[in-house]
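Input structure tokens:
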């Protein structure tokens, strides 16, 4: 069971990092996201200063708010990341990607109920959002012990997003969960 949870969390994080940079497209604004530099916030001091200046000059600068959230997330300052993502969502509340990032940051801040609420909002915006479906399934399985709920979300993920990069892993996990059903 422990290996299952660790595997899911690792897959969750890797998928988040891959999807985040891919889905954001023009939102990743400085060309080199923090995950690529691997330097954390101290190694990105110039970038952070510029982004903070951008936000100070324009508090509604969505791209800068999201990138500050990403930098905080990448440095495992999940509470700080959640704050920036929440500010970005005040500018664009219908952005399901950022809403999912907020949910993920809240989850890693041990605010599971708040994370679930954000994932539900994301799915209300886009019922087929792949990362939200994946993440919500992880929470249902790990935090709520709801295997059937996780399976249903992941089956919907596979049906709605056949090109999802972690689809093989999701299929394998569904099969493992179904094998263990009473």
């Amino acid at each position: 069971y422990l290996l299952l949870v660790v595997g899911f969390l690792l897959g969750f994080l890797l998928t988040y990092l891959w999807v985040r940079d891919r889905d954001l497209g023009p939102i990743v604004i400085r060309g080199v996201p923090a995950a690529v530099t691997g330097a954390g916030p101290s190694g990105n001091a110039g970038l952070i200063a510029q982004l903070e200046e951008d936000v100070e000059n324009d508090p509604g600068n969505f791209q800068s708010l999201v990138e500050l959230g990403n930098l905080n997330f990448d440095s495992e300052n999940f509470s700080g990341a959640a704050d920036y993502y929440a500010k970005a969502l005040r500018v664009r509340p219908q952005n399901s990607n950022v809403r999912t990032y907020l949910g993920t940051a809240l989850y890693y801040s041990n605010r599971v109920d708040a994370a679930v609420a954000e994932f539900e909002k994301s799915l209300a915006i886009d019922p087929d959002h792949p990362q939200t479906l994946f993440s919500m399934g992880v929470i249902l399985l790990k935090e709520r012990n709801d295997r059937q709920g996780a399976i249903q979300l992941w089956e919907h993920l596979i049906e709605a997003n056949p090109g999802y990069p972690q689809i093989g892993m999701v299929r394998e996990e569904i099969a493992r969960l179904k094998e263990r059903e009473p």
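DSSP finds eleven helices and no strands in the chain. Residues 29 and 63 are 7 Å apart (CA to CA).
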